[in-house]
Design a protein that fits this description.
alpha/beta; five-stranded antiparallel beta sheet
Length: about 250
Amino acid sequence: MRLKLLIADDEPLARRRLRSLAAGLDWIEIVGEAADGETTLREAARLRPDALILDIRMPEMSGVDVIARLQAHEHVPAVVFATAYDEYAVRAFEFEAVDYLVKPLTQDRFATALERARRTIESAEARAALARAQHVLADPGADGPIGRVLVRTASGIRPVRVEEISHIEAQDDYVLLHAGDRRHLASLRMRDLELRLPNPPFVRVHRSYIVNLDRVLRMVGGTDGRLVVELIGGERVPVSRHRSRMIRQLAK
């Protein structure tokens, strides 16, 4: 089937990128664009697209609000989320949304997402998927601790359960997740991830490190009065001077 697509993103460059990706698929027809929630709803009602690429964070009306109001429409498109924030991708994975795109976008990932949307339409599951999305994203607990972090791999995107992670290392605007003998690079800032991890057991011990206390063997004295975390797998993580003082006080 030929897929009629509506693009909703408040960033002009993001919409341009989505148009470029769609141009590479001859079975997609872009029928319209929107830069805010109200326009998205109006165009969805007028154009009756098969699929909608929806940015979660838009001004005035969020993607969550758009999803809720779409359910009242006679025609409900299949929704693919587009977001620069992995925490929303985690939520999408948990409630089995049609699909999601984590920016920056790639042609292969875009094609996979739209193909899933096409299959969803063909199996008449669009309205049920939107209901699951609205329920979870509107849940006040959606800002609570996450249970998984999504990471890109050579074969796609993989959910990593947080209990698998022994420690996390800052890598500029990314984080490196250490999970057993595997290393995963995720497009998240350290501070953003710290706020979404369950605490305990995850504790920030250094500007560049978060450790999972359930994976800590012991903490030993290092140089200049600083502690060093020894993990069950044998790795060692430095503790800042300030955090070392705090830990010693707690251990009295």
